[in-house]
Amino acid sequence: MDExxxxxxDAEMAGDLGRAVDELSVDVxxxxxxxxxxxxxxxxxxxATIHAGAGGTExxxxxxxxxxxxLRWAEREGLDVEVDELLPGDEAGIxxxxxxxHGPNAYGLLSAERGVHRLVRISPFDAQKRRHTSFxxxxxxxxxxxxxxxxxxxxxxxxxDVYRSTGPGGQSVNTTDSAVRITxxxxxxxxxxxxxxxxxxxxxxxxxxxxxxxxxxxxEEQAERLENLRGExxxxxxxxxxxxxxxxxxxxxxxxxxxVEIGDVDRVLDGDIExxxxxxxxxxAEGAA
Length: 289
Fold this sequence. Notes:
Elements: H1 2-7, H2 11-35, E1 46-52, H3 57-77, E2 80-88, E3 94-102, H4 106-110, E4 115-122, E5 131-142, E6 158-163, E7 179-184, E8 189-193, H5 199-226, E9 241-246, E10 252-255, E11 261-262, H6 265-269, H7 274-288
Parallel strand pairs: 4-9
Antiparallel strand pairs: 1-3, 1-5, 2-3, 4-5, 6-7, 7-8, 9-10, 10-11
């Protein structure tokens, strides 16, 4: 088309050429991104947990904002999400939430978001309208469906509690006494599931997440013993953040790993984080080269 346009003017063909180039650019970007997702578990589904950090109600509200951001991001990416555990905050927000993201490259993409996220804003909970800093942490592990059989758990090592699900009401919330929390006594690890009305289904869902967490723990211990790949885990507070979301006195999202800055904070909080994720994936790839 470009060669034809060089010798003959055609407005309609010129428009077609522009659209074709734009489509090709999108395809190339997707292909390039796929090359950055070549890790052993990048293709897997992801189990993500958000914990509110230092800051009390402020951080619990921030944790809920982060959960909304990731749910919106998953929707934009065409990924399916199930929220398996939701622990409401004392006054507002959430203390903790666990959700599973299903779809191509879910773990590879979401792993780029792992770490402490910091929010700076004028507090809606402060009558004096002072600026507050809040923290929340996102932890992400791959869901290892095929590896479940490799992880043997002694039933004697488990404590299984059944309870009524908590949180806001709605058609999708299970309100029967069938929510299940499983505690692995030797490690203290927990997994909860409340999506289904059947206690057996919730137990199976909680066990699936628990096995994924135990598998991640095994990988971490092996990596620490052999290569010391993981550094020291930081607290969910000042100086440990991977990204800052500033709403006052100016508006800016800055990733401290890649130095990417975005001025439209609302767009980011509404789930448009592709640029931030891709920049971190590129940084990792360059570091591993």
